[in-house]
Specification:
The chain is α+β, with helices and mostly antiparallel strands. It has a domain at 105-486: di-copper center containing domain from catechol oxidase (Orthogonal Bundle), CATH 1.10.1280. The protein contains 14 helices and 21 strands. A 6-stranded mixed β-sheet has the order 6-11-10-3-8-9. A hairpin with a 5-residue loop joins strand 10 (442-446) and strand 11 (452-456). Helix 4 packs across helix 6 and helix 9 (363-375) packs antiparallel against helix 11. The protein is globular and about 70 Å long. GO terms for molecular function: catechol oxidase activity; metal ion binding. It holds the Pfam family PPO1_KFDV. Residues 398-409 form the Tyrosinase copper-binding domain. Belongs to the tyrosinase family.
Length: 659
């Protein structure tokens, strides 16, 4: 397998992708030579410059620059290298649409049924598709935190009424609650095929997680969900509440919001304090973990295996751990690739083994997974798929899903305004991708008029242009922005460290050795950094083969080979957690449910998993570049359910990369 990254060579006016294995890289002198040559002249064709890496080229031509190349030998050597590196492109802008073939969504097999599916296909549009137009904004609608709206009788009743009206729409109406749920189920569980902008299919399933499509697609999903709800109650100013689970300042912010739970009714005149609140649709029939009801607070480091051991954690301990997790997964991600995820590859098949190419989640997606898992039903034989929230297939069936994603959306907006105290330069601006393939990617949604609307990603990036904003949570946000992890003291002798020579993440903590190097100018192309000092350093586990139906989680530490499952995540050496939510999750431990053996272990997703390391290295006092560090993986796999018999997860290599 090969890395799907592209390089720009301005002198030749080319955009290509390397076909060499990404675990191998050119010597620093060679990279510097190529970059210096490419930077010597400016591109004469601005249209070519606008093209993104990953765009197909029928031919490779030399751009007229108006400048003579003094050393012809340099040009010859570059051409030879480019001939070696060039390969067909594979990251064209994708068209995510429900038009065309739709397949049932597969669920994990159980002892009772080996071929379980869910039908999530959407109705065909009754009229021709229309292009999305940014609304005329006279005043911004304000989304407010759910915990502050709990006692707002007018709002809660209105919110519930809108859902009741949505639920009452006929099944063939794309605005119905059924079809809102199905939209997430189908687009995020490979019911459709990928399509290019000319509507031709790539032949691969469509999956809008594990890439840079995750944030903009979910933003527009809840945007249209909100618009439909508002139209059903004739309130154009209606907004969704956001579940402010990153907020460690307000005691109830991290609980499952009261809006989505039954209210206690007090027998008093005028029906008591909450007597007029009617929110039955927001909780009746919703499948949530009964063990995680208030006053329980969502632990963003949630680990099912350690839940009993951490049951006695104080509010202060949970609060501190949560601040550390948001700090790592939001603040510590300075580049678009780190926070938003990697490019969407139109040759990617996320569900089959045959020559799959990789996906790559960003910090935003990784952080959000924990809330899904925690709210979903765990260890309940009646709900083998972790439904509702714990699985892509059913998450959209719970109204809390849209409130959860509103906070994910809010954090994306906040992230772009955070200062850069990460890079050595200290002045890098956090911003969205400016890549052509990203900006021109299109999604289709049904709007409040039941029309199918075609939305380009470039129109989704500014929430104010979309007509809404979030109530400022500046004081609560400042807690995780200014958080300081606990200092990590090394308690080992480097000579005694046992490192693995096998590229396998097993069921016990495993350490790997990684040799670092200094960044060079050749690392700049493809990033948005203005100079080498603005580059963010990271480690990448490349081509990790994750079984599709297996729950996978592991934590990663730098230069702490003594790390175990009990090691506090709020340590300077901790650089993040990876969580994989499968299609169906078998975690049932009761005697009525046997373990499910993996028979078809070639059904896996191949992912690049990235961890940002700049802050951790600084905190650990590792300032030199030419050093060797240990990268320790602490697995938190489940002993029961699908994949219990898998002893290890393979990956191709561990490498350093700058973004």
């Amino acid at each position: 397998m090969q890395e799907r990254r592209s390089w720009n060579y301005g002198v030749l006016g080319l955009k290509i992708k390397p076909s060499i294995p990404s675990c191998w890289y050119l010597k620093a002198e060679s990279r510097e030579l190529l970059y210096a040559q490419s930077s010597a002249v400016k591109m004469g064709d601005r249209a070519i410059q606008k093209e993104s890496w990953g765009r197909s080229r029928a031919s490779l031509g030399v751009v007229a620059t108006g400048r003579k190349l003094v050393w012809a030998s340099f040009l010859c050597s570059i051409v030879l290298v480019l001939q070696y590196l060039a390969q067909p492109a594979s990251a064209d802008p994708v068209l995510a649409t429900s038009i065309g073939q739709c397949n049932p969504v597969a669920l994990q097999a159980t002892n009772d049924s080996k071929t379980r599916t869910e039908q999530c296909c959407l109705p065909a549009p009754k009229r021709a598709r229309i292009p999305f137009k940014l609304p005329k904004v006279h005043r911004l609608r304000i989304r407010r935190p759910a915990h502050e709206l709990a006692n707002d009788v007018v709002y809660v009743n209105k919110y519930n009424l809108a859902h009741e009206k949505m639920n009452a729409l006929p099944p063939d109406d794309p605005r119905s609650f059924l079809r809102q749920w199905h939209a997430h189920c189908s687009f995020c569980k490979s019911a459709f095929l990928q399509r290019r902008l000319n509507n031709s299919t790539t032949g691969y399933p469509l999956q809008l997680h594990y890439s840079w499509t995750f944030l903009p697609w979910h933003r527009m999903l809840i945007y249209f969900h909100e618009k439909i709800l508002g139209s059903l109650i004739n309130d154009p100013d209606f907004t969704l509440p956001f579940w402010n689970w990153d907020n460690q300042l307000d005691d109830t912010a991290g609980q499952i919001p009261q809006i989505f739970l039954p209210y206690k009714q007090f027998a008093r005149k005028k029906h008591g304090r909450h007597g007029k609140i009617r929110n039955t649709f927001l909780y009746e029939g919703k499948r949530r973990n009964p063990n995680h009801m208030p006053p329980k607070i969502l632990p963003l480091t949630f680990d099912r295996k350690l839940e009993k051991e951490r049951a006695n954690w104080t509010h202060s301990q949970i609060r501190h751990a949560n601040l550390g997790q948001v700090y790592q997964m939001v603040y510590n991600k300075v580049s678009a690739r780190e926070y938003m995820g990697g490019p969407y590859n139109t040759n990617s098949n996320f569900t089959e083994v045959a020559d799959v190419n990789v996906g790559e989640s960003g910090g935003a997606e990784s952080l959000h997974n924990t809330a899904h898992e925690w709210v979903g039903n765990l260890d309940n034989s009646a709900y083998p798929d972790n439904e509702d929230m714990g699985v892509f297939t059913y998450a959209g069936r719970d109204p809390i899903f849209y409130s959860h994603h509103a906070n994910v959306d809010r954090l994306w907006h906040v992230w772009k305004g955070l200062p850069d105290n990460i890079t050595r330069d200290g002045h890098r601006i956090r911003k969205d991708y400016d890549d052509y393939d990203f900006l021109e990617t299109e999604f289709t949604f049904f709007d409040e008029n039941a029309d199918m609307v075609v939305v380009k990603v470039k129109d989704t990036l500014d929430i104010h242009k979309l007509g809404y904003k979030y109530k400022s949570m500046r004081e609560a946000d400042s807690l995780w922005i200014n958080h300081k992890p606990n200092g990590t003291k090394a308690s080992y002798k480097r000579s005694e460290v046992v490192v693995s020579i096998s590229n396998t993440i097993g069921r016990q903590p495993t350490s790997f050795k990684l040799r670092r190097r200094a960044p060079t100018a050749a690392d700049l192309p493809g990033t948005q950094a203005l100079n080498v000092q603005q580059l963010s350093e990271g480690v990448v586990f490349e081509h990790v083969r994750v079984p599709e139906y297996m729950y996978v989680r592991f934590d990663v530490f730098l230069d702490l080979p003594t790390a175990t499952a009990e090691t506090d995540e709020d340590e300077s050496a901790y650089v993040g957690t990876f969580t994989h939510l499968p299609s169906g999750v078998m975690t049932v431990e009761d005697v009525g449910q046997k373990k499910v053996h993996v028979r078809n272990d070639d059904m896996y997703r191949t992912l690049n998993i990235r961890f940002s390391t700049s802050l951790a290295l600084k905190a650990l006092g590792i300032t030199g570049w030419n050093t060797e560090i240990t990268v320790t993986v602490v697995p938190r796999f489940r002993p029961h359910g699908y994949g219990w018999n898998i002893k290890g997860i393979k990956f191709d290599c561990l490498r350093q990369e700058f973004t």
